[in-house]
Amino acid sequence: MTEEITTPAGRTEPLIARYRGLICDLDGVVYRGATAVPHAVETVARLRADGVPVVFATNNASRPPETVGDHLRGIGLPPGGWSVVNSSQAAAAHLAQRLVQGARVYAVGGPGVAHALTEAGLTPVRVADLDDAPVEAVVQGLGTDITWTELAAVGRVVEGGAAWVATNLDLTLPTPYGKAPGNGALVALVQTATSAEPHVVGKPQPALFDLARSRLGSAPEDTLVCGDLLHTDIEGANAAGLDSLFVLSGSSRLRDLALAERPLRPTYVAADLGGLLAPGPAVPAWPAAHLLQLGPGGVPRVPRDGHPGVGHGSGNGFGDGALLQAVVATAWAARDEGRPLAEDAAAWQDVERRLGIAAPP
Ligand SMILES: [Mg+2]
To answer: Staple 172 to which of 134, 179, 249, 295, CB 3.0 to 4.6 Å?
Structure first.
């Protein structure tokens, strides 16, 4: 058999040309800590030049959008053509639609929480001021200085009848030292002492995507979501009816993607954000004739590096990623047909190496 892999349907325009706006995740897509992810800065600069607006949407509620904007400019993103929304703003927008102007809301989390409430015309209340007058609601978002006293007070005011809004339920937070407890872990801690359930606005729930799309002014079918986490970015995009690009520059690996069930599968896959500028076909529509063979080890057989038609280094210099898409399409077809796929991480890491995809440090 021939091992030549070409992009099906002969598409040549960049993937992003099919959309009028991009909702883009940050951590693992644009930066990792203080460091820019490869190709991210130049890709966003190209979108800006091409007039495609970008809204960066982050579940991290702790920092105000202006602070995140400073971070983005600090890694080299040119100003203009993009803005930032966070889950604190989605929480504040949710409450502003339901409470009167100036209503008192208990703010738990970093500065981003109180900032968003003030911006939405509500009055953020700190734990020390809870006794002054009742609060109508609580917004609980991530903060690194949250105390037991603040968490205990969340349970108390919620049991007293205040509405409880959680910015997101991410259980872990990536740090330079590994995983740390995320907002979802602190929400769960409060839940152990109450019988209440919070309303959640962050990804994968639709409120943050709705807020981002209202900034873009684009219809759902004209909006693309890009992210590195299947259970937040991609599941949320699917639930909101938005197409999505999954990138391997963050926390999830090729193994996670290959074994993903349908609600977690993205429309497109790429090594990093540079995939937006390559002619990416939708993975679920990948024609059977272009699928790879499944090897006896339960992973797709990858042709040697530099094989004609694979497209590494062609066109825009990012490679067209066709072989990665073929690998994923092959895995999903095998999974749907009940054929056994490898589950051990090492087998898929080997495929990543063959594809030239570097695991993040
Ligand atoms: Mg991320």
So the answer is: 179
